[in-house]
């Protein structure tokens, strides 16, 4: 799934030990002050407020839209398998900002757009194969901001995740608010998200055993799923369930079916995107012989959320509300 995932200007971001903040609220006013942030555990200074940001993938793009930063964007890259975008809260952003590519970003996309910042993530655009990395862009004089959900953690060469996923969402909103001078807007958005989630948590029945939930992204020989550092971890837990792969210290990763059978989830959540439809994924799960005795399959408790609900994005709180309602009414 993450395979869909991320003119040289004098706006190079450099690693530094200190940083200063911007306090301007209007995104159109903050143009000259340098801004220091911590991104993926590194101190980074941006010499100016970016004016031609290029984003990769739907969740990252909608973080910019949710903060009202369409006027700071030069374009986005995104496959066209992310559902109907015409009815989303940020339709105006999609109408206004150029769709650069229906694949992932490339250096050519970025240079053609005259980008002065690339906002992407590891496996959300940034990738070692093909050389599309923050380091490669820095050599072109183009700074980057890395999606916090995707930060590499050093456990393996490619494992990702530094903090609980909702903390990652709030960290990115806070950082973007500081970088673009819309800190009040970011704080208001975070407070609204926290209230939405608290409202869902308050509806969970007291003393009830929490249903076990497995996130199924894709794969038949081996399932691709979510460990404790990707958004489904807290989408599931805040909705009132338990992610059966909580012990996996990664964001998105491949496991074996035997782990699913052993943990016997009460509910399976399907991630809806790509060439294989949610209905096709459901048919596979219900017909796959090794899963026949798994509770979720026996009772046909399979719930569908869209890709953008399940990656770090401003749609996470609404996804928590929908899953919470399903768990309360379906799992007794």
UniProtKB/TrEMBL annotation:
The UniProt keyword set, sorted, is: Signal
Reply yes or no: does the keyword Signal apply.
yes
Q: Name one Pfam family in it.
A: Peripla_BP_2
| Domain of life, source organism | Bacteria
Q: Which InterPro entries does this UniProt record tie to the protein?
A: ABC_Transporter_SBP (IPR050902), ABC_transptr_periplasmic_BD (IPR002491)
Q: Which residues form the Fe/B12 periplasmic-binding domain?
A: 52-332
What is the annotated signal peptide range for this record?
1-22
Q: Does the keyword Protein biosynthesis apply?
A: no
**Family per similarity comment:** Belongs to the bacterial solute-binding protein 8 family.
User: What name does this protein carry?
Assistant: ABC transporter substrate-binding protein
């Amino acid at each position: 799934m993450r395979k869909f995932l991320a003119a040289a200007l004098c706006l190079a971001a450099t690693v530094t030990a200190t940083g200063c903040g911007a306090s301007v609220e209007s995104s159109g006013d903050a143009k000259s002050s340098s801004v220091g942030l911590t991104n993926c555990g590194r101190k980074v200074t941006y010499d100016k407020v970016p004016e031609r940001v290029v984003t990769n993938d739907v969740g990252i793009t909608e973080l910019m839209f949710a903060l009202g930063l369409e006027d700071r964007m030069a374009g986005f890259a995104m496959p066209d398998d992310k559902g109907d975008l015409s009815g989303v809260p940020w339709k105006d952003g999609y109408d206004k900002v150029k769709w650069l590519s229906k694949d992932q970003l490339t250096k050519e996309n970025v240079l053609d757009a005259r980008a002065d910042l690339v906002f992407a993530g590891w496996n959300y655009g940034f990738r070692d194969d093909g050389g599309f990395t923050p380091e490669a862009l820095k050599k072109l004089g183009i700074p980057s901001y890395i999606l916090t959900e995707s930060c590499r953690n050093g456990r393996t060469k490619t494992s990702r995740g530094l903090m609980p996923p909702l903390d990652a969402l709030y960290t990115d909103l806070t950082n973007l608010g500081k970088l673009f001078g819309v800190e009040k807007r970011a704080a208001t958005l975070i407070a609204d998200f926290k209230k939405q989630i608290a409202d869902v948590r308050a509806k969970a029945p007291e003393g009830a055993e929490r249903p076990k939930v497995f996130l199924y992204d894709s794969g038949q020989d081996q399932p691709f799923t979510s460990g404790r550092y990707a958004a489904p971890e807290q989408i599931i837990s805040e909705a009132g369930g338990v992610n059966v792969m909580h012990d996996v210290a990664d964001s998105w990763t491949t496991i074996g079916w035997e782990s699913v059978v052993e943990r016997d989830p009460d509910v399976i959540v399907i991630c809806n995107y790509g060439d294989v439809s949610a209905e096709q994924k459901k048919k596979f799960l219900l017909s796959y012989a090794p899963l026949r005795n798994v509770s979720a399959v026996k009772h046909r408790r399979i719930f569908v959320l869209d890709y953008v609900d399940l990656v770090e994005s401003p749609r996470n709180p609404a996804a928590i509300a929908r899953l919470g309602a399903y768990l309360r009414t379906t799992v007794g």
